[in-house]
Amino acid sequence: MTTLDARGLSCPEPVIMIQKAMKTKEASYVMMVDNHASKENVTRFAEKAGYTVTIKENGGEYTLEMRK
Amino acid sequence: METNIKLTKLASCAGCGAKVGAGTLSQMLEGFQTHFDERLLVGYDKSDDASVFKLDEETALVQTLDFFPPIVDDPFLFGQIAATNALSDVYAMGGEPRLALNILCLKDSMGSETVQEILRGGYSKAYEADTIITGGHTIHGAEPLYGLSVSGFVHPDKVLTNSGAKPGDVLILTKPLGIGILTTAAKADLVDEMLLNRIYTQMTFLNKTAAHIMKKYEVHSCTDVTGFSLLGHSFEMAQGSDCTIHIDVANVPYHKEAYEFAEMGFIPAGAYRNREYAENGVHVAGDISRAMQDILYDPQTSGGLMIAVTEKDADFLLHELTESGVPAAMIGYVTETQEHSIILK
Question: How far is A54 from chain B (nearest CA, A)?
C-alpha cells in the first residue's frame, strides 16, 4: 500500500500525484487531502481507474482509501 | 527580473474559476446602507452582470469590473482573454462598451516585457470592441491579476437584465462549455496544442457579434455564462425572473474532451462551489452522468451569452447567429415557476 499526503495542495496537483502513483498499479492506495475539491477529484480519478474509494473525514481533512 | 516565467505558475487559481461563490457574496452584502436612486435601473440586488444608471430618456450608463489571475502562460493571450471577458458584461446587458480602465496587479518577478504584452492584449480587444482604454491602476501584489473596468451605454428601455425571462422563452447559448475543466487539465500538460488553440480562440472571441444580432429580435433576458457556470447563471436567471428553466442537456454544446477530463477528476474547485450554490434548486429529471453535471457546473472564463428569446424569434436568431460564425445552440426553455428553479433532462 502506498500512502500519499496531498494536504496543502490545490487542484489539479493531488490528481496529478495520484495519477503518477497509480502507474505502479498497486492494489491499494491511501491519500490525505484537506479540501472538498481535492477529495472529489481524487475520488473521480480513482473510480475511473477501477478502484473503490472509502472516505473518512476528520476536522476538514479527508483520508481516501482506494482499493481494487 | 525574470522574463521567461510561466504566468499560470504565479497564480493559485485560474481565470473565472477564482471568482468568489455567488452565495458567499450576497451574504456579505446583506444589511449594508445604500442610497436609493430611482435612476439606478440595475443594482447588485439581482446579481446582474453590470450596473445600469439612467442618464436621460435616451441613455443609460452601464458599468462593470472584471479581473482575474492568469489562465494561460502567454501574456498577450492572457490580456486578450481578460479584456474579452470584462467587455462581455456590457454586451450581456444589451449595451455597447465605450470606455475602459485597466486594473493590473504585478508580481515582482514579472519582467516589463511580460507586463507590456498583457496590456497589449487588453488594448487589442478593447480596440476590436470600439472601446478606448483611458487609464487604470497598477499595484504590486502576491500574484498577477488583470482586467478592465468597462463603461458603456444602452437605451434605458432596452436594458437586458438576467431577470427578465418569461414563460415560453427559448434559451440560446453562444459558446460551448468545458473551459474550466480543460484549463485545469492543461495545468497537468494533458491538453494537446490543437485543443488549446481551439479554447484560446473561443476565450478571445468577443460577444460583440452575438450581442449585436440578438438586439434585432425579441429578447427578454440575457446573461454571460462565466464563473458561476451554466447552472449557476441559470439559477440566477430563474430566481430573478421567477420562472423555471428547463435544460435539454443533450443539446448543450461542450468540448467533448472535457467529458473525459471530468471523469478523471480534472475539475476546478469553482465547479464544486457552483454546485453547492445551485444544486438545491436543480432537479435532475433524466439520466445525466456525474461528468456531464460537472460540465454544467464548470466555471467558464470569457464564456458565451445565454439569451432568453421569444419562441417565434428563436429559430431566426439561432440561424443568424450561426450564419455569422457564432457557435450558438438552443439549450432549453422557460416555463412558469415550478418546484425547482432548474430542471435538467
Answer: 16
* Residue from B104, B109, B141 nearest B122 by CA: B104
Per CB-CB distance under 8 Å, the chain B contacts of A12 are: 184-185, 187-188, 265-266
- pLDDT tens per residue across span B53-108: 999 999 999 999 999 999 999 999 999 999 999 999 999 999 999 999 999 999 98
Chain A and chain B share a number of CB contacts under 8 A equal to 48
Looking at B105, B126, B158, the residue that finishes a domain is: B158
Which residues of B are part of the catalytic machinery? 16
Work out how many domains chain B is built from and give that number. 2
Beta carbons of A40 and B266 less than 8 Å apart: no
One domain, residues B228 and B131:
no
Chain A nearest CA to B272, separation (Å): 6
Q: Is the predicted pLDDT of residue B1 greater than 70, yes or no?
A: no
Q: Are B147 and B82 spatial neighbours (Cβ–Cβ below 8 Å)?
A: yes
CB contact under 8 A, A44 and B12: no
If asked whether residues B224 and B119 sit together in one domain, one would say no
Q: Are B300 and B327 part of one and the same domain?
A: yes
Same domain, B251 and B325: yes
User: Which chain A residues are within 8 Å of B266, Cβ to Cβ?
Assistant: 11-12, 15, 41
Q: Does pLDDT of B153 surpass 50? A: yes
**Tally of domains within chain A:** 1
**What residues make up the domain containing B322?**
170-344
CB contact under 8 A, A41 and B266: yes
The domain that holds A31 is classified in CATH as 3.30.110.40
Task: Report the SS3 class of residue A41.
Answer: helix
Whether B165 is covered by a domain: the verdict is no
Q: In which domain, by residue range, is A8 found?
A: 2-67
| ipTM, interface predicted TM-score of the complex | 0.94
Please report the residues numbered 236 through 295 in chain B whose beta carbons come closer than 8 angstroms to any beta carbon of chain A.
262-269, 271-272, 290
**Do B108 and B194 fall into the same domain?**
no
